[in-house]
């Protein structure tokens, strides 16, 4: 069916689109679809077939080219090998010396160098043959050569490779020759003849393409070797069309003529050194036939597909055209039955549905018109509608008539103003919209003759025709008089609120005040800038949640604050007051005092909390400082009272402790005055005097040690000490002295070494054991233990006494603190022993602790342990020393007499003096084993006596005696020349040790 182009009318097309589709039947378009779908497919198939043929052609070309290149490489390698062998042979001595007979003999006697050689030929530079290796040597022939030729520029000519020599069908060979240089001149050409069969044998190692051939040709295009019919074509020249292409390029691929007839596809490769060439080809006819057959089959398949598609489409199009034609001419009712094409059936159903919808739309439109008329007449919004641009006919609803006071047949008596300016009629909203403008949110005033003023909000839009031009307009007017009045009242209220807020801000700035508002249900907390500043935050209003606000409160106060608020909510309190500290945003602790007002629902659920907070840090600090001072004053008063009681108890104890030994000594002296000195009672009395005197000395030593320890003036003479051995020795000494006779003492000691002062360590052990004896009943065991634990030495003294009262336990190591005493004060002591133990342990970098209960107490001393060392001195054996000569210089007559008597009774010779000068003379005259010199002597002091004695050569032992035992006293004595320093009263055991020592000059 012919198609004629017609313009498409009634369609909204882009202006730039110029395509015009021809008007035709559906059958024509379906046939066009078949053609459009089939032709590209056929074209694609043909293109793919062509690509496949080209790929096969390329693969064939690549294979032929590679075969030609491989064979060219083999031929070139054979030629190069022959040139190398000839070059080596040309250096033969016989040849260079001109002895051609010997050279020929050598060639004839030995096999040829290369198996492919037929013979070796020697020619003159002019080409005259001088000898052949396969013929007998002819001297006349060898002498026929001319003179050697000079070398141009001193360079030998290159080797020569000839083409195929001989007559086709006869003996064919090729020759390779190299120049022979003798004395700088060209003397000979040495050549090797290679039979054509050698080249034929060489190509036998190369597999020719299936149905193809391999050819070797020389520079004159004569066939040297051929894989296909070599007996027919050996020595013949290649076809003319092949030579034409091969003479232009060194390698390539082309379609050429076959010697057998027909065409061939051949790839060739020339050998640059000899200009020989290699040709590898296949017959062209089979390949061309298969390519033509493939293309023909593709075109035939496309044509058959096109014809079948057209035929089938003509059959199917009837099923489409008939119902469509019926729908177009008779409507949806013209096709009542089933339709085979689903889309046409849907189209019929859609047409039926469209008819029904059109009827429903008409009914709805009529209902909407009735609704619009009702809305138009009853709406409180003023409406104006005009259908002409000049607004000659205007339809107004009753609300608009009431707003503007318009009456039919009367002119308008109102004025419309904007920003105090009267608007002309042309600038009214409806008139502006009728001219095509859009009016949006225009505030106007309508002033009536009676003075009434309405404030209206006007909107107006144009009504457009089909060409986009204004054909009328619609305007609405909303009475906003009451709203504007309310807005003005709101603005005035907002102004007053802002003034109040300014006052609050000023109050916050001036008085460290902040406010907050917590909406419980929404969990929002709003802090003013003043409150944010009090929390150390950025100075602005901050909104957060309750948990976030609590993070700014000190954790301890936050828990108390939440508990307080929960209780207030349960009690439905309307006001709550509390204090709290802020969290750690600030460098100082800040206290805030808050008063909250809580609002509740009728059911008692808290809804809102509004509060004010004031910085009361200064007041709180004053209160805390006052509380601290009160507590400090109270504690100081308690300490003073306790110290006063301790002083009274100490004086009472001291008086008791001093009166007891003094009473015993006084009574003993009275007894001595009444009886004989040899009486048994006198012996017991002297023992009492000795024991009580030692007790007084110990009391004085403890008092002085405590005073020195408290003042920090005690000096430790540190040395390695075996703590276990020392404890064992000290406890044994106390047992022998009868101090532990009422208590069984068990020892558990290990060898643990410490770095300490042995005398001070003995004080610690003695005080702890003595303390256990005092407060343990008779027959109660005492256990002393020394072990090494965790790198420390641990000394434990365990008793089974009544234990330490719980109130006394924290103060047990304080000065003058004692447990409960009986009236007879059987335990004795001044309350300074444990204080001395703690201070001495601390001086040794250790510590002391106590555990106590009703079943007894455990005192433990921990000291740093050291590695064991070998003792460097021999302990005292306790043996009585041999009689010695002693000089005693003492200004106190009683002390001098008592000490002289004691030493004399021990068998020693004693010489006493009461001043320093006589003492020095006596000392130098007697040269005693030991000199005891008091420090505070009249005349010469003890230091001067020692110094002058040493200067005058005295080498004996000298001991300073004094009532002072400070470290600087000991150091001063040693610097003066004394060997030791003893504190009064003198320890008899220490004195015995010095007397037992060998003479000082004997040990020097």
TrEMBL record:
Ranges that cross the membrane: 29-50, 297-317
Pfam family, one: HATPase_c
Histidine kinase domain ranges (all copies): 653-867
Keyword Transmembrane helix carried by entry: yes
Location of the PAC domain: 440-492
Modified positions (4-aspartylphosphate) in chain numbering: 934
Superkingdom of origin organism: Bacteria
InterPro entries in alphabetical order: CheY-like_superfamily, HATPase_C_sf, HATPase_dom, His_kinase_dom, HisK_dim/P_dom, HisK_dim/P_sf, PAC, PAS
Matches recorded under PROSITE patterns: HIS_KIN, PAC, RESPONSE_REGULATORY
Occurrences of domain Response regulatory (ranges): 885-999
GO molecular function: phosphorelay sensor kinase activity
Coiled coil: 344-373
UniProt enzyme class: transferase
Reactions performed catalytically: ATP + protein L-histidine = ADP + protein N-phospho-L-histidine
Keywords associated with the record: Coiled coil, Membrane, Phosphoprotein, Transmembrane, Transmembrane helix
The enzyme's E.C. designation: 2.7.13.3
Name this protein carries in UniProt: histidine kinase
Organism of this sequence: Aquabacterium olei
């Amino acid at each position: 069916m012919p198609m004629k182009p017609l313009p498409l009318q009634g369609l909204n097309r882009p202006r730039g689109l110029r395509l015009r589709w021809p008007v035709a039947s559906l059958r024509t378009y379906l046939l066009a679809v078949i053609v459009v779908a089939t032709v590209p497919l056929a074209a694609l198939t043909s293109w793919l077939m062509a690509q496949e043929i080209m790929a096969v052609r390329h693969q064939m070309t690549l294979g032929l080219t590679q075969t030609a290149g491989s064979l060219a490489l083999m031929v070139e390698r054979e030629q190069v090998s022959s040139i190398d062998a000839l070059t080596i042979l040309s250096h033969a001595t016989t040849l260079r010396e001109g002895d051609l007979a010997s050279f020929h003999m050598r060639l004839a006697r030995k096999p040829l160098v290369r198996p492919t050689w037929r013979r070796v030929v020697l020619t003159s530079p002019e080409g005259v043959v001088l000898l052949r290796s396969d013929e007998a040597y002819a001297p006349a022939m060898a002498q026929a050569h001319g003179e050697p030729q000079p070398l141009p520029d001193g360079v030998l000519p290159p080797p020569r490779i000839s083409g195929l020599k001989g007559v086709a069908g006869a003996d064919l060979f090729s020759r390779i020759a190299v120049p022979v240089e003798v004395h700088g001149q060209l003397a000979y050409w040495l050549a090797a003849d290679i039979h054509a069969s050698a080249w034929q044998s060489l190509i036998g190692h190369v597999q020719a393409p299936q149905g193809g051939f391999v050819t070797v040709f020389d520079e004159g295009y004569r066939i040297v070797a051929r894989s296909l019919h070599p007996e027919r074509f050996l020595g013949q020249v290649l076809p003319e069309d092949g030579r034409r292409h091969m003479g232009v390029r060194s390698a390539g691929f082309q379609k050429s003529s076959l010697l057998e007839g027909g065409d061939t596809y051949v790839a060739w490769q020339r050998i640059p050194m000899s200009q020989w060439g290699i040709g590898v080809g296949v017959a062209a006819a089979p390949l061309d036939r298969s390519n033509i057959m493939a293309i023909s089959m593709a075109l035939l398949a496309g044509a058959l597909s096109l014809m079948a598609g057209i035929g089938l489409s003509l059959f199917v199009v009837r099923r489409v055209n008939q119902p469509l034609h019926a729908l177009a001419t008779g409507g949806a009712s013209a096709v009542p039955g089933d339709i085979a094409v689903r889309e046409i059936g849907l189209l019929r159903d859609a047409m039926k549905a469209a008819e029904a919808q059109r009827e429903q739309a008409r009914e709805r439109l009529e209902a909407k018109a009735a609704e619009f008329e009702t809305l138009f007449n009853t709406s409180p919004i003023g409406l104006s509608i005009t259908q002409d641009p000049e607004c000659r006919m205007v339809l107004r609803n009753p609300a608009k008539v009431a707003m503007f006071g318009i009456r039919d047949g009367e002119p308008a008596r109102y004025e419309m103003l904007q920003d105090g300016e009267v608007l002309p009629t042309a600038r009214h909203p409806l008139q502006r919209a009728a001219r095509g403008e859009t009016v949006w949110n225009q505030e106007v005033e309508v002033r009536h003759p009676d003075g009434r003023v309405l404030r209206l909000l006007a909107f107006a839009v144009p009504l457009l025709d089909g060409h986009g031009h204004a054909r009328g307009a619609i305007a609405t007017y909303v009475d906003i008089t009451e709203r504007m009045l309310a807005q003005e009242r709101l603005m005035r209220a907002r102004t007053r609120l802002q003034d109040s807020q300014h006052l609050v801000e000023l109050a916050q700035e001036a008085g460290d005040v902040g406010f907050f508002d917590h909406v419980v249900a929404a969990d929002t907390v709003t802090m003013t800038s003043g409150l944010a500043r009090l929390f150390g935050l950025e100075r602005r209003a901050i909104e957060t949640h309750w948990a976030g606000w609590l993070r700014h409160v000190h954790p301890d106060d936050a828990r108390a604050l939440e508990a307080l608020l929960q209780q207030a909510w349960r009690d439905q309190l309307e006001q709550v007051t509390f204090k709290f500290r802020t969290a750690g945003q600030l460098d100082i602790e800040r206290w805030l005092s808050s008063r909250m007002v809580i609002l509740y629902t009728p059911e008692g659920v808290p809804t809102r909390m509004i509060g004010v907070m004031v910085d009361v840090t200064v007041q709180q600090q004053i209160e805390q400082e006052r509380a601290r001072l009160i507590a400090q004053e109270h504690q100081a008063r308690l300490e003073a009272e306790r110290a006063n009681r301790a002083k009274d108890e100490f004086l009472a104890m001291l008086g008791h402790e001093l009166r007891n030994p003094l009473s015993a000594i006084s009574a003993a002296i009275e007894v001595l005055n009444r009886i004989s000195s040899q009486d048994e009672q006198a012996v017991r009395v002297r023992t009492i005097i000795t024991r009580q005197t030692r007790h007084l000395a110990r009391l004085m030593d403890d008092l002085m040690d405590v005073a020195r320890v408290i003042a920090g003036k005690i000096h430790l003479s540190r040395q390695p000490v075996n703590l276990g051995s020392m404890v064992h020795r000290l406890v044994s000494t106390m047992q022998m002295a009868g101090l532990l006779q009422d208590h069984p003492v068990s020892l558990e000691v290990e060898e643990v070494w410490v770095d300490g002062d042995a005398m001070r360590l003995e004080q610690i052990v003695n005080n702890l054991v003595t303390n256990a004896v005092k407060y343990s009943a008779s027959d109660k065991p005492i256990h002393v233990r020394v072990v090494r634990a965790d790198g420390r030495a641990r000394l434990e003294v365990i008793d089974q006494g009544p234990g330490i009262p719980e109130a006394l336990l924290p103060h047990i190591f304080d000065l003058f603190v004692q447990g409960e005493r009986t009236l007879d004060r059987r335990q004795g002591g001044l309350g300074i022993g444990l204080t001395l133990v703690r201070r001495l342990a601390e001086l040794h970098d250790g510590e002391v602790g106590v555990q106590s209960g009703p079943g007894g107490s455990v005192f433990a001393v921990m000291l740093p342990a050291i590695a064991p060392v070998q003792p460097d001195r021999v302990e005292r054996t306790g043996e009585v020393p041999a009689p010695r000569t002693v000089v005693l210089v003492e200004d106190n007559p009683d002390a001098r007499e008592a000490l002289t008597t004691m030493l004399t009774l021990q068998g020693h010779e004693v010489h006493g003096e009461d001043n320093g000068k006589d003492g020095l003379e006596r000392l130098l005259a007697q040269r005693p084993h030991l000199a005891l010199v008091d420090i505070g002597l009249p005349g010469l002091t003890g230091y001067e006596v020692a110094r002058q004695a040493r200067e005058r050569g005295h080498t004996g032992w000298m001991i300073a005696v004094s009532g002072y035992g400070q470290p600087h006293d000991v150091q001063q004595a040693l610097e003066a020349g004394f060997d030791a320093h003893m504190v009064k009263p003198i320890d008899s055991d220490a004195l015995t040790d010095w007397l037992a020592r060998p003479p000082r000059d004997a040990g020097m």
